[in-house]
Amino acid sequence: MRKKIVAGNWKMNTGIQDARTLVDGILNDLPQLASHQQVVFCPPYIHISRVNGQIQDSGKAQVFCGAQNCHDKASGAFTGEISIPMLKEIGVTHVIIGHSERRQYFAESHDFLKSKVDALVEAGMQVIFCCGEPLEVREAESQNDFVAQQLKDSLMHLNAEVLQNQVIIAYEPIWAIGTGKTASSNQAQEMHAFIRALLATHYGEDTANEISILYGGSCNAANAAELFACPDVDGGLIGGAALKAETFLPIIQALS
Question: Nearest-CA neighbor of 203 among 145, 143, 170, 157?
Answer without folding.
Answer: 157
